[in-house]
Write a structure and sequence with these properties.
The structure is a single chain. Helix content is about 65%, strand content about 0%. By secondary structure, it is mostly helical. The chain is elongated.
């Protein structure tokens, strides 16, 4: 908590011997021990309350999750029993659908290209023959 190592405690002890008269030293040390014990009890109590709050929060999360799973199970349990289950009909329908998908697709028929047309401008007979 305060990160006091042995060296720091020795320095504090030496200062206490110098500052506190020897006849009052046992009373001061007893009060210091009582104060330290009280601080430890308060810290442990706080830690216990914190752990209880964490457990309670976790319990609420688990209860929410359980209720969600429970509602999922009840909704899944409501099966439509009016219609009979026929696995053979389901299999037959599946096979028919797959067979329809596997049929070869005929390519679309494209119209045949037309024969090339004659040029719009015809050469006149006088241009090419007289020379």
């Amino acid at each position: 908590m305060f990160d006091l190592d042995v060296g720091k405690l020795i320095v504090i002890g030496i200062v206490a011997l110098i500052a506190i008269p020897s006849k009052d030293l046992p009373r001061v040390l007893r009060q210091l021990g009582q104060l330290t014990g009280k601080m430890r009890r308060m810290a442990n109590e706080f830690q216990g309350q914190l752990m209880d709050a964490m457990r309670e929060a976790e319990l609420h999360e688990i209860q929410k999750e359980f209720k969600g799973v429970q509602s999922d199970l009840t909704s899944a349990a409501q099966i439509d029993l009016d219609h009979p289950i026929d696995p053979m009909a389901d299999s037959r329908n599946h096979v028919v659908k797959v067979a329809e998908l596997d049929k070869p697709q005929t390519p679309p028929v494209l119209p045949e290209p037309e024969a090339p047309k004659e040029p719009a401008v015809k050469p006149s007979p006088s241009e090419g023959e007289g020379k």
